[in-house]
Amino acid sequence: MKLDSKIPEGPIAEKWSKHKFNVKLVNPANKRKYDIIVVGTGLAGASAAASFGELGYNVKAFCFQDSPRRAHSIAAQGGINAAKNYQNDGDSIFRLFYDTVKGGDYRSREGNVYRLAEVSVDIIDQCVAQGVPFAREYGGLLANRSFGGAQVSRTFYARGQTGQQLLLGAYSALSRQVSNGKVKMYTRSEMLDLVMVDGKARGIVTRNLITGEIESHSAHAVVLATGGYGNVFYLSTNAMGSNATAAWRAHKKGALFANPCYTQIHPTCIPVSGDHQSKLTLMSESLRNDGRVWVPKDKADSEKIRKGQLKPTDLPEDKRDYYLERRYPSFGNLVPRDVASRNAKYVCDEGRGVSTTGLAVYLDFADAIKRDGRAAIEGKYGNLFDMYQQITGDNPYETPMKIYPAVHYTMGGLWVDYNLMTNVDGLYAIGEANFSDHGANRLGASALMQGLADGYFVIPYTIGDYLAKMPYDKVSTDHEAFKEAESRVKEINDKLLRIKGNRTVDEFHKALGHIMWEYCGMSRNEEGLKKAKTEIQKLRKEFWEDVNVLGTNEELNQSLEKANRVADFLELGELMVEDALNRSESCGGHFREESQTEEGEAKRKDDEFSYVAAWEYKGPEAPEELHKEDLVFENVKLTQRSYK
Amino acid sequence: MKITLKVWRQKNAQDKGGFKTYQLDDVSPDMSFLEMFDVLNEQILKKGEDPVHFDHDCREGICGTCSMYINGKPHGPKQTTTCQLHMRSFSDGDTIVVEPWRAQAFPVVKDLVVNRSSFDRVIQAGGYVSVNTGGVPDANEIPIPKKIADEAFDSATCIGCGACVAACKNASAMLFVSAKVSQLAMLPQGQVERKTRVEKMVAQMDEEGFGACSNTGACSAECPKEISLENIARLNREYLKAKSSSDNV
Ligand SMILES: Cc1cc2nc3c(=O)[nH]c(=O)nc-3n(C[C@H](O)[C@H](O)[C@H](O)COP(=O)(O)OP(=O)(O)OC[C@H]3O[C@@H](n4cnc5c(N)ncnc54)[C@H](O)[C@@H]3O)c2cc1C
Ligand code: SF4
Ligand code: FES
């Protein structure tokens, strides 16, 4: 299979304008003859569905929550990037493009990233017009902040609730199209299969989560906006329902899965407190602007702290190791996410971690409070400190916060070309569900930007190019392809319900998460990855023999929902490991211990690995086939990252 | 901690439903309320019984999905969401009664899960600014005083959980509706449709079967996002103004 990214010819700054001019248009009167399915109504899906409706297409949109307003996007805190240069501090489309390619450790496509930076400016205009209450200065203009170590202030925000406000904006636009009758919204509906007719994506099969009914929906194109797959790890900052099922089942129908091993692990999350832990809570990155990260120098002191015999505030300065400041004197506590995470793991592996589990480091505000006063710190981080106290019971004004890295975002996803179409005709993937723009590492505040760029400003153009070449004919859901897909879905559900084994779905999910975190987490090596592969295969076999899913299909059955998702995670997890094994270089969030510099930092191997790894499904229990899309850099010079 | 739970069990919308008592012997004070329910469900599953169904997703207090009526209060004793309530707010040996939201406009689906799609329909009636994608002015073209932007933000933080309805003896949705009406009425972008919006949203709210507001303030006192009663006052003003010079038919 030859992968064609379809990047338009010409200078980078002109590609998108030229492409928009060259794409075929659907005549306004004909748009109503086309049906589009949008699965997922987070930022990417809601913005796409609303925009399609406005253009005149007939849209069917789906989500598994009880309302589109509750998608995982709602939880994003920090902000959204855009190259507006309102602060006159030297930002530009080119700089945002450059930062994103560099931040992604040169593993993304220049063409896509440039377009992302280009349309970023329109997003902010759109959101403001919808009534999104971004933070403002006293003069009434929009406020910006610098985020995640960026050299310019290009991040727009709405207190600590940016994702919520952006999603509610997209949700309101979507609601307007629902009331106009252009979008039909299916809530509490889960896509369980993709339907292909004559080699084209022509519909989906869903389960109505309330009645259990298996339903078919036909359309001229299918857009997946189903989010990321961080929950493979069981514990992550993702919402509990976030899953890979839609993308994975499309993968099994032929869509390539790209760079599955690229996972972002966020350094500042609240540590695990016990076996009951169900999810991890992110503490905003901004805390590292004022907090100092440390652990005791001496293992013995850590042990005393873990046993409660010593208070961190009683440990003298000369017995503390501010390890980020020590190892990275110029960036200190503000090193990028992957570097901060990995270093926290190292000090905990050495036995110097704190908290009863030994898996936590301190983020200390004592110096900042001494320097700026408590009021100033409260002004900046008050709500975060309150949240921390609510969850942990500790007061961060008096004792240092405890933090530990957690899985946060997945850069990998369905392979798409410049039009955001997968290799399957008529199947698109947008938002976190695709692999396209972040390379091996995503910059802070860039996921919201990408989701909305894809949904508002890219796919409304590119989908027209495809539809314009399609006949209007509809495929009936009585077509045998739909019937086949329906019976396969029913078969899987029946099989899950019949096993009646001894272990619950959560037990399997936790076991999988443990393997992934241990061997395919912050630091990976060949031996561990091979071990993970066998362990996942074994676990998957046990799952299909011993899982216990009660109840029936014909009712609200949350165990059955979870079982379907975990069944897919058990397959995707293995592919992630396979991809991590194949990529024996370190890049961005993917750290292979075999490939590091003398100082222990990540080392890329550009000659060997400057490609997108896109995997093709080859049937149950068969190894997947690797296809490579070479990455070409014409505008950015490749350098090794250094934060010393 | 040992905890006794009296939980509302109801197989489906048609079922009459009733309380069932469960015993949990090993609850950690660090658990969230929902994690305590996870433990309960694993225990129930091991016995071969149907787990308690409840709604949840983000577990960070922002998606508004979780919805338990705990000891006679929506989201329990603290002014937060159920997912952000921790067991350290209870004592060893406590008995805790857990029910679904109760309101005509929020019919029970199963156990603690209710149907809140009425909220979506109220928003669909007019909770938006009618702009299409593209062709909008530059974001900094219309300055908005910080004070107004901040106030609009305060109203916009509503998470649509429905605790206000569950807390109200009349099951009124005034706090929810007023939060959205206020946000858009304060911002310049919301001016054009200001009157039609409030009329349409209030009409839809009535049609969904939410009760009348009697200004007791129980809603705001239980709202996890501290949406203030001022929003309701503003809604009333907006509504009167709209009615007296209606743009609507
Ligand atoms: C705690 C946290 C904080 C973050 N903060 C930031 C930040 O400050 N800035 C930033 O840029 N990014 C941030 N991110 C990342 C960002 O929030 C996400 O990457 C982004 O919101 C994903 O949007 P999406 O539309 O692609 O998917 P989602 O919002 O995950 O939406 C997925 C949609 O798909 C639906 N769905 C899924 N599977 C199915 C199925 N099988 N059938 C039917 N429907 C399905 C769901 O119902 C949902 O509607 C943060 C992430 C987390 C976890
Ligand atoms: S007003 Fe408060 S209680 Fe009511 S839905 Fe909004 S957040 Fe929930
Ligand atoms: S689960 Fe999202 S607010 Fe509680």
UniProtKB/TrEMBL annotation, chain A:
GO biological process, one term: anaerobic respiration
MF annotations from Gene Ontology: electron transfer activity; flavin adenine dinucleotide binding; succinate dehydrogenase (quinone) activity
Principal subcellular localization: membrane
Cofactor: FAD
GO cellular component: plasma membrane
EC number(s) reported in the record: 1.3.5.1
Assigned keywords, A-Z: Cell membrane, Coiled coil, Electron transport, FAD, Flavoprotein, Membrane, Oxidoreductase, Transport
Signal peptide stretch: none
The keyword Glycoprotein is annotated on this UniProt entry: no
Enzyme class per UniProt: oxidoreductase
Similarity remark: Belongs to the FAD-dependent oxidoreductase 2 family. FRD/SDH subfamily.
Protein name per Swiss-Prot or TrEMBL: succinate dehydrogenase
Organism listed in the record: Fulvivirga marina
Classification of source organism: Bacteria, Pseudomonadati, Bacteroidota, Cytophagia, Cytophagales
From TrEMBL, chain B:
GO biological process: respiratory electron transport chain; tricarboxylic acid cycle
Cofactor entry: [3Fe-4S] cluster; [4Fe-4S] cluster; [2Fe-2S] cluster
Co-factor remark: Binds 1 [3Fe-4S] cluster. Binds 1 [4Fe-4S] cluster.
EC number of the protein: 1.3.5.1
Domain 4Fe-4S ferredoxin-type as annotated: residue spans: 149-179
Pfam families for this protein: Fer2_3 (PF13085), Fer4_8 (PF13183)
GO MF annotation list: 2 iron, 2 sulfur cluster binding; 3 iron, 4 sulfur cluster binding; 4 iron, 4 sulfur cluster binding; electron transfer activity; metal ion binding; succinate dehydrogenase (quinone) activity
Catalytic activity as recorded in UniProt: a menaquinone + succinate = a menaquinol + fumarate
Top EC class for this record: oxidoreductase
Domain of life: Bacteria
All copies of domain 2Fe-2S ferredoxin-type, residue ranges: 1-102
Family: Belongs to the succinate dehydrogenase/fumarate reductase iron-sulfur protein family.
NCBIfam families in the record: dhsB (TIGR00384), PRK07570.1 (NF005746)
Name used for this protein in its record: Fumarate reductase iron-sulfur subunit
